């Protein structure tokens, strides 16, 4: 149990800068997820914390101590790999106890710790099997068991669910969350899947191009993204980005998306946007905030007609796609209200959830 | 079943039966060729066995059929070979040389392959290629310069000289096989071991050697075969009977000018072939697995 801190950490591979001066503080027992597209530097950051990659410059602290020059074994960390990395010639028990045996724990202690971890992970009756005789999910449990038995200061997960099929991934996600609630330990988890990030994390670190875009709780990232990248990365389907112009509208303001569509800016947002009036901006609106007009909700100019291109029923809701000025957007509507492709339909924007993005800086205003 | 259903079923059944007919022909052809190959490769050993069980008189008699034993089976050839010649000394020398060479080869090539295959350092790629190149130089080219080296070390006419020179044949190839093997082991495995607290030596002994066991066995068999069957080096460097090894010893002591002691030669060749045969029989499965893995990964 320990806190982890990164100070201006840089990693350069030859002339490629994979990680660009990132700062991050992870308090004791927190579950932090590093998320971003491939090549964003999230795995490299994790591997630097593990000691598998050298730090080009900057410092990494575990429990207040600089660990830059410590080999992995002396950092008191445990890691779970994407492809499990189980030793194929050892049974699950031997795999889990390998680290303890190297550290010369007593036989009784080893047995007790392994059995305890096996109970937590529900793999007690698989302990004498080799990895070959285990399914993907079971292998990943053994790999987690290998990390748990060491009782390390920090758990590191490197895309541990990527090799599993969709159903098992959801199941193991819950499992990981459950294990973290039982075995309170500082955890750094890397994934490219934003759903995994949102469901697991106490705090999510969104990375892009070797930099941290934003750090925050899942709710914070969803409701208050700071950059266009975060706004587009978090949430599925992704946020709609509509080129627009911010205009005065009597006492208030409105965003003009097209000749026909102009949405009023809520009074609560107006002070923030005052300086941007008259500029070309990008309106960010999530599909779930673009629905059929609902009874009892005042439309107040927020509704507009569209012609549907594609309709995707999902059961609980229906995704409809439409085009404005040559760009395709997505809305999330009630199945009962949805029309067929080619037909026209009225949509209402829940404008309280709007974001305005400055296209020059990609910052959310 | 209605008539139309039967009619619809008919072409499917025909397709299936033609498939099984194809398969039957493939099987028949395989068996024919396998039997031909077996006959081709088993003929020499059969000839050796038959000849080694005949008396000298029968071997020398031109009128008898060489493929059968007409005058009764005798173990005289083996008895004479073991008592009247230095065959057992050759056998002992060969065994000592081979055991030492295999041990030296495996220690050197496993360590070399581990460092060249798993630890990237400056020049490791060139070194790995260089090691393979040395394997391409034939021993018929090397024995003259090696003669100077062996003589200057005072090991001329000593089987310990063979312990020194055989690894020049075995180490490069075995290292090459092992590099391929070690490289095929996922990188996460050493990272997991590093995090678990293993040093490089523990990683090698507890993870890499057990995981690469088929490759190690293939390399061991190769080293064993090469040093058991080496001919050029002992021919060049050994000349007294008490230091001689099987390959050269059998030939030099049983062929006197144009007098060939065929019975004993065959008995000697059979006895000499026995140890590799036993080892192959036990390790064959591993050997094949090893060769194929080396083929795709090396």
Description:
The complex is a heterodimer of chains A (365) and B (298). Chain A has helices at residues 42-50, 92-102, 107-121, 136-149, 166-182, 194-200, 218-223, 228-233, 270-273, and strands spanning 4-13, 16-26, 31-35, 57-62, 65-66, 77-80, 154-158, 186-191, 203-208, 211-216, 240-249, 252-256, 262-264, 280-285, 290-291, 303-313, 318-324, 327-333, 344-349, 355-357. Chain A has 365 residues and is an alpha+beta fold. Chain A folds into 2 domains: 4-233, P-loop containing nucleotide triphosphate hydrolases (Rossmann fold, 3-Layer(aba) Sandwich), CATH 3.40.50.300; 240-357, Beta Barrel (OB fold (Dihydrolipoamide Acetyltransferase, E2P)). In chain A, the strands form 4 sheets. In chain A, strands 6-7-8-3-9-10 form a 6-stranded mixed β-sheet, with helices on both faces. The radius of gyration of chain A is 25 Å and the shape is elongated. Chain B folds into 2 domains: 3-52; 85-297, MetI-like (MetI-like fold, Orthogonal Bundle), CATH 1.10.3720. In chain B, 79% of the residues lie in helices and 1% in strands. Chain B contains 14 helices and 2 strands. Chain B has helices at 3-52, 56-60, 76-84, 87-118, 124-135, 139-152, 159-165, 167-183, 187-196, 200-211, 213-229, 232-237, 246-254, 262-297; strands spanning 255-256, 259-260. The radius of gyration of chain B is 27 Å and the shape is flat. Chain B starts with a helix and ends with a helix. The model of chain B is unreliable at 293-298 (pLDDT under 50). At the A-B interface, strand 6 and helix 2 of A face helix 9 and helix 10 of B.
